[in-house]
Amino acid sequence: MKQTPRILAVAALALASTALVAQQQTPPLSPPAKAEGSVAGKAITVDYSSPRMRGRKIMGELVPYGKVWRTGANAATTLTTPSDLMIGTLHVPAGKYTLFTLPGETEWTLIVNKQTGQWGTRYDEAQDLGRTKMTVTKLEQPLEEMTIAIRPGSGGTGVLAVEWESTSATVPVVVH
């Protein structure tokens, strides 16, 4: 049977469409995530991409100690606050910022950066608003997916937490 160019074109289009549908149905390796919380009645949002362990050693290897980490995957992690905050010892005016961290075995540093909208690996230290220390504790159970949370605390305070594998890094948050 002789195949015409039109039949070949239709077949190629059908194959391409099938591949595109299959690709769209495959979930991303580091899906978008959002941490939403309230401190003293004020909303705080963190938009990030949440990588998974997938059998890898995370802390100290995939996320090396002593090097700035994008704190997530894909696009840079973004903090949005309509109110001035104190995050640890750092005054953060109302606005939108990018979060990076400097992980260590026993202590992390949270970096709040004024540049926004960039890919997560594009870190410009000259754009830092500032840095503050985070407290590191060990999780009881390994956490497969990296998670950022804003948790209420006592007396109108809150906590910003970054957790993955067996590590929890936290810093207090207060509306200023």
Folded structure, characterized:
It is built from one helix and nine strands. It has one domain. The protein has 176 residues and is mainly beta. Helix content is 12%, strand content 49%. The protein starts with a helix and ends with a strand.
Strands of the widest sheet, in order across it, are 1-2-3-6-7-8-9-4-5
| Proportion of strand residues | over 45%
The class by helix and strand makeup works out as: mainly beta
CA-CA gap between termini:
78 Å
Number of strands: 9
Specify the helix fraction band. 10-25%
Query: How would the global form be characterised?
Result: globular
**Average of pLDDT:** 91
Largest sheet, in brief, is: 9 strands, antiparallel
Helix and strand run: HEEEEEEEEE
Q: Count the DSSP helices.
A: 1
By oligomeric state, this entry counts as single chain
Radius of gyration: 21 Å
Offer a quick outline of the entry.
The chain has 176 residues and is mainly β. The chain is built from one helix and nine strands.
